[in-house]
Specification:
The complex is a heterodimer. By secondary structure, chain A is of the alpha/beta class. Chain A folds into two domains: 228 residues, Thiamin diphosphate (ThDP)-binding fold, Pyr/PP domains (Rossmann fold, 3-Layer(aba) Sandwich), CATH 3.40.50.970; 111 residues, Rossmann fold (3-Layer(aba) Sandwich). Chain A is 43% helix and 19% strand. Chain A contains 13 helices and 14 strands. In chain B, 40% of the residues lie in helices and 20% in strands. Chain B is globular, with a radius of gyration of 15 Å. Chain B has a single domain, classed as 3-Layer(aba) Sandwich (Pyruvate-ferredoxin Oxidoreductase, domain 3), CATH 3.40.920.10. Chain B starts with 5 loop residues before the first strand and ends in a 6-residue tail after the last helix. Chain B has a six-stranded mixed beta sheet, sandwiched between helices. By secondary structure, chain B is α/β, with parallel strands linked by helices. The chains are: A alpha/beta, B alpha/beta. At the A-B interface, helix 8, strand 8, helix 10 and helix 13 of A face helix 1 and strand 2 of B.
Chain lengths: 346, 193
């Protein structure tokens, strides 16, 4: 298909992608920086009787309404941020134990608590393991607006294909930015079905009377998750083959790092980037392969080390490289800053 | 006039001064002029009444991150924004400000080429005070030779289309303000630094 460029915000893009993916029902509660997505859906639903919309009284009930929509076989989704992301973990872990395709876009903002309203990378732990979760969920991290368009569509497919709650973990920089997007990149949508209402499913349980019963249930879920993970896991290794410094960064910062690497390569600096696209499952093998020639690893993130802990745990046995931290909790990190940091340690 | 491969522009002022409208119009006009573009609005919890920032980038090349470290053109509309935007100033930065909203004494520490524009007083004398921001937009466009003024006019009209329905006379007022701003910048109010 021919390239079709449109000037859009990331919020427009999430909405557009969800509609292309066949979303039918949205239940949510407004919160900056993601409110525009809900407003956009409300407008669409006002014009299109096939689209359902419910604004609930908070994010806990929004998540529960999503579960209701999914049980009825509707492609249901929601959007939240910050403290709303905390509240919605309760219904999200319910979706985990019931294996429901709960799709949610999260626009990270600063924390703890109300924090700031536009940006951070501080909701990574929460997205991966929030609530009393065993991590039976998929977390995608788009790094720019084009990827946001494609990954949002893909998230619906992943959720419905593998029956896993799926989060698209973005931030307000990503969704408030206005820039051209190629909207011809449409991915065929997975079909939704009311499997939860068919004859085979007698009872969906989130409560078990015996420990061994729950253990058995979980072991089945873990096995399914492990098998699905191999299909789902994604990462980008950019110019890592001969890199003596490998940057580890994700999401918006991942894109800043890629721009920095491209510039540094022009100056003959052997620098590369490892950028996870799924934050869970995490591409351990890809990460280990990326650092084979590295004697330094630069971890850049807009949090106090949530990502760094994953990186160090993953690479423990794989490298003796020295870790350098560029942690800027709650603040953005530009390409220029990453470039300057690399020059300082090169 | 600024000549760059890629332009990085930061507009800063109080919430309610029309910072985001200016930035949005500029970004749209750049896109319609055939350029690659990125515009990121940035503000705090105190959305109305706090310092509001608009990060705009455009040019023929690819654009990386939506935020940048240093601005090519900085447009400052209130005293509070001077301190807030200090990290984005470098000596190559063109520092455009409204002389009626900012006193040059407060800019003593700013080491950059300055372009003072008396937007508010000129808008008040010749048009209406409220269009001072459109006057500034005209001045910005004049400094950025790369953006087609027709596209700014188009984006401006699109941006305020809803308001024009109720008050059709606003359209002409805005277009006049844009023209006035361009002339102000061209006629040269350049300071001797």
């Amino acid at each position: 298909m021919a390239v079709k460029k449109e000037l859009l915000t990331g919020n427009d893009v999430v909405l557009k992608a969800a509609l292309l993916a066949g979303a039918e029902y949205f239940a949510g509660y407004p919160i900056t920086p993601s409110t525009e997505i809900m407003n956009g859906w409300a407008k669409e639903a006002a014009d299109n009787p096939k689209l359902l919309f419910l604004q609930t009284e908070d994010e806990t009930s929004a998540g529960m309404a999503v579960i209701g929509g999914l049980l009825a076989g509707k492609k249901t989704w929601t959007v939240t941020s910050g403290v709303g992301h905390i509240l919605i973990q309760d219904p999200l872990v319910l979706a985990e134990t019931l294996s429901l395709p709960f799709v949610m876009y999260v626009g990270q903002r600063g924390g703890p608590s109300t924090g700031t309203v536009i940006y951070s990378q501080q909701e990574l732990n929460l997205a991966r393991y929030g609530g009393n979760s065993e991590g039976l969920r998929v977390v995608y991290a788009p790094s720019n607006i084009q990827e946001l368009f494609e990954i949002t569509q893909k998230a619906f497919n992943t959720a419905w294909r593998y029956r896993l709650p799926t989060i698209i973990l973005g931030d307000g920089y990503l969704t408030k930015t206005l820039s051209p997007v190629d909207t011809s990149r449409v991915i065929p949508a997975e079909k939704a079905e009311a499997i939860f209402l068919n004859k085979d499913v007698k009872n969906l349980r989130n409560c078990f009377s015996r420990e061994d019963e729950l253990a058995e249930h979980l072991n089945i879920l873990f096995a399914k998750y492990a098998a699905a993970s191999r299909q789902i896991v994604e990462s980008e290794s950019y110019k890592t083959n001969d890199a003596k410094i490998v940057i580890f960064a994700w999401g918006t910062v991942g894109f800043a790092a890629k721009v920095a690497v491209a510039n540094l390569r022009k100056q003959n600096k052997r620098v590369g980037l490892f950028r996870p696209i799924t934050m869970r499952p995490f591409d351990d093998r890809g990460a280990i392969k990326a650092v084979q020639k590295a004697d330094k690893i630069l971890i850049a993130e807009s949090s106090g080390g949530q990502f760094g802990r994953i990186v160090r745990e993953t690479l423990t046995q794989a490298t003796d490289a020295e870790y350098v931290r560029l942690y800027k909790p709650a603040e953005g990190i530009t390409s220029e800053e990453i470039e300057a940091k690399i020059k300082e340690i090169y | 006039m600024l000549k760059r491969e890629m332009y990085k522009i930061l507009i800063a002022g109080e919430g309610g001064q029309g910072i985001q409208s200016m930035a949005h119009i500029l970004a749209k006009a750049a896109y319609e002029s055939g350029l690659n573009v990125s515009y990121l609005p940035n503000y705090g919890v105190e959305q109305r009444g706090g310092v509001s920032l608009g990060f705009i980038q455009f040019g023929k090349g690819p654009i990386g991150f939506p935020k940048f470290a240093k601005a090519d053109l900085l447009v400052v509309l209130c005293d509070r924004a001077i301190e807030r935007t200090k990290p984005y100033v470098q000596k190559e930065t063109l520092y455009l400000y409204d002389t009626d909203l900012i006193s040059s004494i407060n800019l003593a520490e700013i080491r950059a080429e300055k372009l003072p524009i008396p937007a508010t007083s000129v808008a008040s004398a010749k048009l209406e005070p409220k269009v001072f921001n459109i006057v500034l937009l005209g001045a910005i466009t004049a400094e950025l030779g790369i953006i087609n003024i027709k596209m700014v006019e188009k984006a401006l009209t699109e941006n305020f289309a809803d308001k024009y329905i109720l008050k059709p006379q606003l359209k002409n007022l805005n277009l006049k303000a844009l023209d006035l701003g361009q002339r102000l910048a061209q006629e040269g109010y350049k300071n001797d630094k």
